[in-house]
Amino acid sequence: MRSLRFLPLLLLLASLPAMAQFGVYGEFSTTNLHTANEPQLYGATLGGYYHKNFKHHLGLFSAGPDIRVSFLSGPGGGTNAPMQSLTSVLVGPRLAFKIPVTPLHLYAEGLIGDGDFHLGEGLSRNSSNTFESQFLGGLDLTLLPHVDWRIIELGDGELLASGSSAGLDTTTFSTGIVVRMP
User: Fold this and answer.
1) Could you tell me if residue 100 is inside a domain?
2) Beta strands in 55-167 (DSSP E)
């Protein structure tokens, strides 16, 4: 009898029209480090998100976590400068909005994590672990029932090396494919 007192709460929760969805994505990304003599870094971003859709009570919004890993590299600034690379793992909340009567989805994310910035190769390699933060926004277009084209994703972020008070600003542009699983 004691467990029956939670029955109304369970019925209420079961009646909410919230549907979970998992998505994975792969992107081609380019990042500008906003520093003199620093070229663009290019590479891949792989990630996944999990969110709940709230179609009737909160409009067409969905929310949940996103996790991503980026592998970027490029030539160093100058003529004989060593290669540079940035590997980062970021996680944070994601908020998405389905535009009514269109196959378009807008989303925004605020991510934090760890970046590993390398300058050079072999014995001359200089590496620094950094705290990284990014604010991202993008637009996805549904091509097939569970496949989206990530038309564009724009990111504004900062790399902060351990023990340093000055950060390195970054701007990232990406495009790719998203596969959603119901």
Assistant:
1) yes
2) 61-74, 84-98, 104-119, 126-144, 147-161
More confident residue, 59 or 100: 100
Q: How many CB atoms lie within 10 A of CB 172?
A: 20
Report residue 111 CA to chain centroid gap: 7
3 lies in a domain? no
Helix (H, G, I), strand (E, B) or coil at 101: coil
Query: Is 58 within the bounds of a domain?
Result: yes
Is residue 143 within 8 A of residue 156, CB to CB? The reply is no
pLDDT at 165 over 70: no
Half-sphere exposure of 51 (CA within 13 A, CB side): 26
Domain of residue 121, CATH code: 2.40.160.20
Cα dihedral 174, 113, 39, 36, rounded to 10, equals: 130
Count of domains in the chain?
Answer: 1
pLDDT tens readout for residues 99-123: 888 999 999 999 999 988 776 654 4
DSSP H stretches of helix in 25-66 = none
Residue at token pair 């001359």: 124
